[in-house]
Amino acid sequence: MANKKESRLRRARKLRAKLLRDRKVRLCMFRTPKHIYAQIIDNEPTRVLVSASSVESDFRSEFPNGGNTAAAKAVGLRIAEKAKEAGITKVSFDRSGFKYHGRTKAFADAAREGGLEF
Predict the structure, then answer these.
(1) pLDDT digits (tens, 9 = 90+) for 65-106
(2) pTM of the predicted model, to two decimals?
(3) What residues does 31 pair with on adjacent strands?
């Protein structure tokens, strides 16, 4: 029987294989119990185009706890804002194998609200 981390990594592997076939820029989200991180990655030269997280100093003054849905929404809006500045509107959502509820859903909804399409 697989444990929680192995199951998440299996889901992530399957999802990334599908996303790599699409050859789109991907919005990669990762979360820990205390923080949430997001990057927009271009797969062709494999480079990070835009990033945002709850660890950034200006963000931490606003949200002391980066591990809740309010922080996830704020990071989602911030990554969407930075992506607009970089001229990125369409992305594929890579949720890193995390189930789509709670902070993951809050992040995705906020990114859509900020103007990203996926």
Answers:
(1) 888 999 999 999 999 999 999 999 999 999 999 999 999 999
(2) 0.90
(3) 36
Separation between Cα atoms, residue 36 and residue 67, nearest integer Å: 7
| Nearest by Cα to 33 from 54, 48, 13 | 54
**15-43 burial by CB neighbour count: b if 16+ within 10 A, else e?**
bbeebeeeeebbbbbbbeeebbbbbbbee
Domain ranges within the chain, ordered by starting residue? 4-113
Q: Are 72 and 31 in contact (CB under 8 A)?
A: yes
The CATH fold assigned to 4-113 is Nucleotidyltransferase; domain 5 (3.30.420)
Q: C-alpha dihedral over 108, 67, 99, 117, to 10 degrees? A: 10
Nearest to 59 by CA among 85, 77, 80: 77
Q: Which residues lie closer than 8 Å to 77 by C-beta, 6 or more apart?
A: 110, 111, 113, 114
**Cβ–Cβ contacts within 10 Å for residue 79, how many?**
27
